[in-house]
Specification:
- The chain is of the alpha/beta class and about 290 residues long.
- The protein is about 20% helix and about 25% strand.
- The chain has a single domain, classed as Metallo-beta-lactamase, Chain A (4-Layer Sandwich).
- The protein is built from 7 helices and 13 strands.
- A 7-stranded mixed beta sheet has the order 6-5-4-3-2-1-13. Strands 7-8-9-10-11-12 form a 6-stranded mixed beta sheet.
- It is globular, with a radius of gyration of 18 Å.
- One zinc ion (ZN) binds near residues 84, 169, 190 and 229.
Length: about 290
Amino acid sequence: MNNPQPVFHIKLYGTRGSTPVCEPGFQKFGGNTTCIYADLLTNDRSKLIVIFDAGTGIRKLGQDILAGKLPDTENILLVFSHFHLDHIQGLPFFDPAYNPAKKIGIFSPHRELKKSDLHNIFATQMQKEYFPVQFDKMGAHIDFYTVEDYHAALNADSQVAITYQLHNHPGGAYSYRMESQGKSVVICTDLEHGRQIDPQTVEFCRDADLLIHDAQYTAAELEKHRGWGHSSYAQAMETAERAGVKQLVFTHHDPAHDDDFLLKKERYCREKFPNCIMGKDGAEFFI
Ligand SMILES: [Zn+2]
Ligand SMILES: [Zn+2]
């Protein structure tokens, strides 16, 4: 079944890797770290939105909810690829987390992490030495979901199936796949393939309508950064090609890659995989 109408609304709020950047020359693609918004257009849009990672981009996402530019749902599900700083550092600036009327679920598939471990990850970055408001005082009702709570966490909205898969990254990280009504969106960031393209990742991305894939490095840069946990443009394209992906978005831009560089790279990559685009903070996709 393939629905001719868009099913998912995806908006990129942070596409920068490793650290936010704000200097001139980086404004076109943006400097916020990883945060991706997803909701189901076919839903009544009042039930659930899903946010992938809480990098600095989540600040603007929260503002857009308050401004009525995104659905103001009671339930927000935050799913995490992993907990490196660039993927969690925006949470203290996420306005809905200060609203007692909101229910926020935080999910990680990391098997070794208990609920208390998940809580500690977020409480630590907001302990009083680092931030004036402590995590437990934010106000929203925040629940932690471990892999045992998978169904409660990820299938709260039965109209969308969300699956995940562990991939190679220092400490491990997870890809996510959302499917509904014949449409699929896959997010694979902070992923290092190794010498060969990871066949499990190719299978996970199989026939996706949209793939948002790590592309921190050029091939030459990747050689100098083996073991750092990221992919090259060529690897992202090869994954998309082999998986039969319809549209590819590069993300986790290296902080050294300015707008000129990314524009040039995008042109170059399109000659090899025509339906690819450089991820940009604020870009929207209707899948
Ligand atoms: Zn990262
Ligand atoms: Zn990472």
